[in-house]
Amino acid sequence: MKIKDQLNTSGPAGTARDHRVLELYEQVQEIEERLIPTGLHVFGRVSEEGAQADMLRMVASFERPEARARSLTDLLAENLCEASYETLLKAGREDESQLRERERVDEAARAAIELFIKAGTEAALLWLSTNARVNPDDARPIFALLENISEQLRSNDELNALARSLRGEYIEPGPGADIVQNPSILPTGRNTHAVNPYTVPSEIAFTRAHATVDNLLERHHREHGRFPNAMALVLWGLDNIKTQGEGVAQALWLLGVRPVRDAMNRATGVEVIPLDQLNRPRIDVVMTVSGIFRDLFGATMGLLDKAVRAVAYLDEPFEMNYVRRHVSEQCETDGCAPEEAAVRVFSNAPGNYGTNVNFMVMDSQWELDDTLGDLFVTRKCFAYGRDGAGRSYEGREARVAMDRALARVEAAYQNIDTFEIGITDVDHYFEYLGGVSKAVEKRANLRPAIYLSDALSRDKKIRSLAETVRLETRAKTLNPKWYEGMLKHGFRGVAEIESHVANTFGWSATTDAVDDWVYTEVARTFVLDEEMLERLRTLNPHSARSLVGRLLEAEGRGFWKAEAEAIEKLRQIFAGLEDQLEGLT
Ligand code: BEZ
Ligand code: MG
User: Fold this and answer.
1) Is the CB of residue 394 less than 8 Å from the CB of residue 226?
2) Degrees (nearest 5) of the Cα angle 140, 146, 148?
3) Strand partners, 520
4) Torsion of Cα atoms, 231 then 237 then 238 then 239, to 10°
5) How confident is the model at residue 585 (pLDDT cuts 50, 70, 90)?
6) pTM for the full predicted model
7) Which atom of ligand 1 is nearest to the CA of 432?
């Protein structure tokens, strides 16, 4: 029986218990619907048909103005429920009947896509018209797009393109993004191109960022009773290519400015949004941008620096302009010039990349709590922008300025723009967002709230880091659909599982946002289950040993309160793996 069918609908509506059950139901649904990779991409090979259904459904759930295609979920909501899908999404938690309607829409979308895969467009259109009153002419454009995508996924020219490029032949260019975001990335095997930095942020990115920032500030206000004084933002290059600058646009919204384009349509200036339109204070932002962002978006770094300075010198009350308040306070306490107190764009020294926090964590090379945050600042304390005389400084060391800016931060944030790579898939999320949070912890003497957005989700959802770790753990690491998909790849698959556990550990090291049950369940699923352990050690004993070693380290460093018995068992298994590997060498 589904959870929602067990709700007591006859009693007074909206009781606390029912509300909690609905909340839990939403979480279960969120895990179920989460799009996850169910295997690795093998270079040169087409993906399995089964893996395409979820992806096509996700593609179909977005409006595609460029293909003049309405989203399938919108069409279904309008015809089945006489409501917009947006309303159903928003009302879900509060209203059980809306939740049921939304589920009806989602199930119809699933059925139509499955039929499309099995029997083609006409069969899906007929089904939609008979069962959901959707006019075939309205739904035809989105299915034409899906047909195009399916067709392009049936062939793969990557190997051929690689060989041609090695021969020095011309490779056609193609945009970089994921399929859901931009289906025109297909076919793969092309020469991925970036975007013109002067187009960033695009109009669409700026509009989408508005909703995300509203949700972000609304959530912080709900949980803390006020807006954050300052936020630390992580900006990456590839993400801003894929989204045409959504992360950049979010920074501008937090400051309360909009981009202004010059006669050549280049975003080179900013216009201040008046406070009576903004309806909230301007939030101070400290931006740490990756080395890739710095290399690709020089003009954008200039725009961000300009935005901070435009806001810092406005004649507005301190309680409505946190940047101005902080600049003024710093000038007073440090005796520095306002232009120095308004430095907010930081990256690596020219020619340098990364924070190295990931390497230090992976190699277990830190002892003191402050080390990881200090390393982050050492690597990232190089300022980019223009001084009061308009001279640009490209990567000037500015450790004190960064220390001061981070000391006011109350929340850290990164925009997540893809379904393909999550916060435990790679070590870069914890090295950046975890690293900056750790740096704030010492300098501000508080643990910042940490948020991530789901910029691709229809409702621009904001999650805390702890929520995101739980979701990723349930949807991926502990999900048999995910790990069995990985194990099909043998040696590499075990390495992927181990890497998820190591990256989860990275979040413990930098933020302590990982619940004990995460490690307990990882140990139970992959190590204490004899059959699974046997599979792992046969396929890849090196990664199996690292995984067990990482669990022991998590316990040893106090990140995991484990049962003594489980630890004893893990120690024995670790010793056994060491013996096995010694025998191998
Ligand atoms: C970037 O696109 O900026 C980026 C990519 C991978 C790791 C870190 C940053
Ligand atoms: Mg803990």
Assistant:
1) no
2) 105
3) none
4) 20
5) low
6) 0.92
7) 8
Give the ligand at the shortest distance from the Cα of 243: 1
What six digits make up the tokens of 476?
């991926």
- Range from 93-97, 523-527, 563-567 carrying the lowest mean pLDDT: 93-97
**Using one digit for the tens of pLDDT, what is the confidence trace for 449-496?**
999 998 777 778 899 999 999 999 999 999 999 999 999 999 999 999
What does the pLDDT look like over 257-305, one tens digit per residue?
A: 999 999 998 999 999 999 999 999 999 999 999 999 999 999 999 999 9
Q: Return the number of other C-beta atoms located less than 10 Å from residue 468's C-beta.
A: 23
**Would the CA dihedral through 80, 82, 83, 88 be positive or negative?**
negative
Rounded to an integer, what is the distance from CA 546 to the centroid of its chain?
Answer: 26
Which protein residue has the closest C-alpha to ligand 1 atom 4? 236
- Most distant CA pair in the chain, distance: 74
- The predicted structure's pLDDT at residue 93: 62
* CB of 237 closer than 6 angstroms to any ligand 1 atom: yes
Sign of the Cα torsion 459, 460, 464, 465 reads: positive
Quote the CA–CA distance of 518 and 507 in Å, as a whole number: 12
Q: What angle do CA 487, 492, 495 make, to 5 degrees?
A: 90
Of the listed ligands, the closest to the CA of 518 is 2
- HSE-CB of 585 using CA atoms within 13 angstroms: 7
Q: Which ligand 1 atom is the nearest neighbour of the CA of 292?
A: 3
Output the pLDDT for position 400: 96
> Three-class SS of residue 245?
coil
Q: To test the ligand 1 pocket, which listed residue (428, 430, 433) has its Cβ within 8 A of the most ligand atoms?
A: 428
- Low-confidence winner among 52-66, 68-82, 419-433, 557-571 (lowest mean pLDDT): 52-66
CA 49 to chain centre: 26
Between the CA of 240 and the centroid of ligand 1 the distance, in Å, is 10
Distance 554 CA to ligand 2 centre (A): 9
β-pair type (449-454, 411-416)? parallel
Q: What is the DSSP letter of 77?
A: I
Token pair of 566, please? 């489980």
Find the 477 Cα to ligand 2 centroid distance in Å.
18
> What is the chain's mean pLDDT, rounded?
93
Tell me the CA end-to-end span of the chain in Å, nearest whole number.
53
Ligand 1 pocket member 241 (CB < 6 A): no
Within 13 Å and on the Cβ side, how many CA atoms surround 201?
26
* pLDDT value for 50: 67
CB distance 85 to 458 below 8 Å: yes
239 CA distance to ligand 1 middle (Å): 8
CA of 236 to the centre of ligand 1 (A): 5
Amino acid of residue 500 = H
| 94 Cα to the center of ligand 1, angstroms | 38
CA gap 248, 338 in Å, rounded: 24
